[in-house]
Amino acid sequence: MLIDEARQFIPTGSATLAKNQIVRWAKEGRQPGLSLVVASQQPSAIDPEVLSQCDIILSHKLTSRNDVSALNALSQDYMGGELRTFIKNLQRTGEAVIVNDELETVHMLRIRPRRNQHGGGSLPPQEENAFDIW
After folding, report:
1. Cross-strand pairs, 100
2. Where are the domains positioned within the chain?
């Protein structure tokens, strides 16, 4: 399941109708083979119980101290530094850091600019994917 604007469903410090079940899914869903993706431009607004269960973190440039701190709390020993350092080193549009707990790796990446015009609808199958990783 993919949840965009996750802060609306699993906010820090307050309850929603979905929050308890999403937190449970994040903690226990891997056992029966369920996957959960949460996306937000404001990671500090997502409940820390869910963030702490993330096996893969993909972050573009963040400037808010609260948002950087929320992700930095997920730093691991194998990273060779704090996650905040990787995030602060992101300079250009399309750059991101990806942390993979399963493989215990950290990679910097660039996502190429979109080559097609945004039309607000789905792309025909022959169009190129706008999110190839270099």
Report:
1. 56, 105
2. 1-50, 55-113+128-134
